[in-house]
Amino acid sequence: MNKSVPIDVSKIVRNIPLPDVTKAFDLLMEFKRENEQTNREIARYEAMKEVMITEITRKYDFYEKLFSTVFSERRKVIDKYFSIIDKGIQENNNELVLAGLTNLSNVVASSPFADIGNLKALIESNRMPEL
User: Fold this and answer.
1) From the CB of residue 58, how many other CB atoms can be counted at a distance below 10 Å?
2) What gap in Å lies between CA 131 and CA 119, rounded to an integer?
3) Which has the closest alpha carbon to 85: 108, 61, 104, 63?
4) Do 33 and 41 contact (CB within 8 A), yes or no?
5) Helix (H, G, I), strand (E, B) or coil at 44
6) What is the chain's pLDDT, residue by residue, as a tens digit (131 residues)?
7) How is the chain split into domains, by residue range?
8) CA quadruple 38, 40, 43, 45: dihedral positive or negative?
């Protein structure tokens, strides 16, 4: 069992020189101010982190949607030209097959990023393309 022993603080205080008590109090107050400043900085960095995470997430979502849209439209165009080629083969129509192959070749040979200036402007505007 732990028994508390009464302490006579007045005896302890009498033995500590007054300048040391003042210095200890000043150091304690300085520590408190530094601790409060550190806590404010931590809170500020946490808020900055949350803002950055939100911005990164927003940009990721935008880029993912943008590129999915661009390549989805490209896929649709390619599928359409394959349909034209298939129809030309079924109908034994060489002109239709040739038209489908020519257009398919043009789409495949071109890059969806050929006009990088427009893509950059689109990204900077944060709006989805009208496809």
Assistant:
1) 11
2) 13
3) 104
4) no
5) helix
6) 556 667 766 666 667 676 777 888 888 899 999 999 999 999 999 999 999 999 999 989 888 888 888 788 888 999 999 999 999 999 999 999 999 999 999 888 887 776 667 777 777 776 665 54
7) 16-125
8) negative
